[in-house]
Amino acid sequence: MKKLITYQIDSFTKEKFKGNPAGVVVNADGLNDYQMQQIARELNNSETAFLFPPDSTDCDGVIRYFTPNTEVPICGHATIAAMYAKAIEEKLDSCILRFKTKVGILPFEIIKKNEDYQIIMTQGSFELSPPFDADVTQKMITALGLEKSDIDEKCPIQIASTGHSKVMIGIKSRTKLNSLSPNYADLAHLSKEINCNGYFVFTFDSNDKDILTYGRMFAPAIGINEDPVTGNANGPLGGYLVQNKIADFKNNEFEFNGRQGEKIDRLGIIKVKVSIEDNKPALIQIKGDAVVVFRAEIEI
User: Fold this and answer.
1) 298 contacts 286 by C-beta, under 8 angstroms
2) What is residue 297's predicted lDDT score, i.e. its pLDDT?
3) Residue 150: DSSP 8-state
4) Into which family does the record put it (predicted)?
């Protein structure tokens, strides 16, 4: 009988039942793919992270991520949750841990402050695909419940990725953002056509000088109709804003706060930092708080 130390963590918040919940199994050594999938389905968070010992000398551990119905290569909020759980479980001091993911070995920074922790996740390499043609764009707008007039003209609709791609859709109004009721079946079907599972709808319509964007993220093709606060959407958004020259930046750095989860009462904030070389994104990091909802043991 193996006892799996399991956490439920809310990421990008210090308030329980807000932000984005993730499961974390901190001692997953010995679990097979089927067992991890079953645990993720049982916990029923958008993602559950599984931590393994290092399998080579060039990393401090291995991390894998499962939704309730599939494995995904990388996940922002589950990384924040996993490193937070590891820090608490092992009573870590400030440090940088290099974890092997499906998109390569990434450094995750644990910052200890006032007997609590913040986590900085360095994301994978930034990639930006060409804007969609008129036909695909119209299908997407219709499936999301948008009109052409809702779209922010300075924001091309295209896929951005730091390892787990998302379509970026900029719109004019936060009221419209919060009123969206997408056709999830149509979005899931379109995902197969464009080979991208996530749709991140965002707006600059903010009444808070410390918040640049509000967003909502839909990924019905992988069983997530709406994700509360998405690291792998807000991070690539930073790269998208820099590469498309939408964002103002100086000293080769661009930082902003993105807020997400307002409509579904799981509000959270992600701090995004983009390091820039030759006017292009060179390194993208996200920083977030977290809070433990529960710690438990699963016996299998």
Assistant:
1) no
2) 98
3) G
4) Belongs to the PhzF family.
Q: The tokens of 110 are what?
A: 């644990």
- Residues lower than pLDDT 70 in the chain: none
CA distance 245 to 266: 31
Q: Rounded to whole angstroms, how far apart are CA atoms 293 and 119?
A: 17
Query: Nearest to residue 258, comparing CAs of 187, 205, 191?
Result: 205
Torsion on CA atoms 119, 22, 129, 236, rounded to nearest 10: -30
Using CB atoms within 10 Å of the CB of residue 127, give its burial: 0 to 12 exposed, 13 to 18 middle, 19+ buried.
middle
Q: Is 153 a catalytic residue?
A: no
Name the region of 279 (left: φ>0; alpha: ψ -120 to 50; beta: rest).
left
Under a CB-based contact definition with an 8 Å cutoff, are residues 174 and 205 in contact?
Answer: yes
- H or E segment at 23? strand 20-25
Residues 6+ apart with CB under 8 A from 64: 28, 36, 49, 50, 52, 71, 101, 102
* 47, 109, 262, 277: the active-site residue: 47
- Looking at residue 204, what is its pLDDT? 98
- Please count the CA atoms within 13 angstroms of the CA of 136 that sit on its side-chain side: 18
Report which of 294, 299, 259 is spatially closest to residue 45, judged by C-alpha positions. 294
